[in-house]
Amino acid sequence: MKNILLLCGILFCTSIFAQRDFDKVEIEALQVSDNIYMLKGSGGNIGVLTGEEGTLIIDTQFAPLSEKIKSAISDITDHDVNYVVNTHWHGDHTGGNKNFSNDGAVIIAHDNVRKRLSTNNVRPFGRTTEAAPEEAWPHLTFNDKLNFYFNGHSLHLTHVHNAHTDGDVFIYFADANVLHMGDCFFKDRFPFIDTALGGSPDGALKAISVALMICDDDTKIIPGHGSLATKEDLIKYNKMLMTLVNRVKASIENDKSLEEALNSNLTEGYEGWGSGFINDEKIIKTLYAAYQQ
């Protein structure tokens, strides 16, 4: 059952990407702080830090969007992109790595991001995600933490273990009180937890706990997907995931099959949260596969 679930998710994701018309995508820029911006387009939200020393971006979305992303950045600053930080390895966050690397940007990420991007990743039933071109691989990697000082800001990069994937990183702009969480936070949506390659529901919850310790009521949070968020939004997201995990665990303890669970309205109270990539059925299947022995 677990393999079937993961295969369905991969096929669904592949189908969506194949059908996407990148020509119609518009890149929207939102100013988060004095010289920090969030770019929305297609794929993961991009963070941008500008200043006299140059430009740093967080994630690169899909490769076909790179020129549009560069154009949006040029409306903000005259400086080229010097650094790219990846929150994790998925293609909607790293697809443009090669294009920015070829322009001279240095790519920074967790050790496991380079591992995933530089090798073929075997998925369920033998399907393989091929390695990215070498130009897309991170040039600088780290294990648990990395401090980065740029444009007068202190950036704290923190690895959160086995959450959305096995290479997730939070980027906290301490001076501006801005936190980029990557796909450890899908605002007002059910999460995609890549259990095939290191992600886990328990790790996802621990990652949220780490973020909540970083944040205060004034923190601005850039989620992997969704609009700019606050600590209150993250608390609501945490409650949702904890509620669903507890409901699934109780269902398993009561010897209910997956089919019975799917007919038990375990997502009650979270209507509309399944309107994104992961719908009500998929989140319950993911949690069942993770906790059912």
Please outline the helices and strands.
Layout: H1 2-19, E1 28-33, E2 36-40, E3 46-51, E4 54-58, H2 66-74, E5 81-85, H3 91-94, H4 97-102, E6 106-110, H5 111-118, E7 121-122, E8 128-129, E9 140-142, E10 145-150, E11 153-160, E12 168-173, E13 178-186, H6 201-214, E14 220-225, H7 231-253, H8 258-262, H9 280-291
Parallel strand pairs: 4-5, 5-6, 6-9, 13-14
Antiparallel strand pairs: 1-2, 2-3, 3-4, 7-8, 10-11, 11-12, 12-13
Helix pairs in contact: 1-9, 6-7, 7-9
Explain what the structure shows.
- The structure is a single chain.
- With 293 residues, the protein is an alpha/beta fold.
- It has one domain: 4-Layer Sandwich (Metallo-beta-lactamase, Chain A), CATH 3.60.15.10.
- It is built from nine helices and 14 strands.
- The strands form three sheets. Strands 1-2-3-4-5-6-9 form a seven-stranded mixed β-sheet. A five-stranded mixed β-sheet has the order 10-11-12-13-14. Strands 7-8 form a two-stranded antiparallel ribbon.
- A hairpin with a 2-residue loop joins strand 1 and strand 2 (36-40).
- The longest helix is centred in the C-terminal third of the chain and has 23 residues, at 231-253.
- The chain starts with a helix and ends with a helix.
Can you give the helix content as a percent range? Answer: 25-40%
The CATH topology corresponds to Metallo-beta-lactamase, Chain A
Spatial strand sequence of the major β-sheet: 1-2-3-4-5-6-9
Enumerate the spans where pLDDT stays under 50 for 5 or more consecutive residues: 1-19
What's the N-to-C terminus distance? 11 Å
Given the structure, what is the number of helices? 9
CATH C-level class is: Alpha Beta
Please, what is the CATH homologous superfamily? Ribonuclease Z/Hydroxyacylglutathione hydrolase-like
Oligomeric state, counting identical vs distinct chains: single chain
Binned strand content:
25-35%
Strand tally = 14
What's the overall average pLDDT, rounded? Answer: 92
The CATH architecture would be 4-Layer Sandwich
Helix/strand/pairing class, anyone? alpha/beta
Element order: H for helix, E for strand = HEEEEHEHHEHEEEEEEEHEHHH
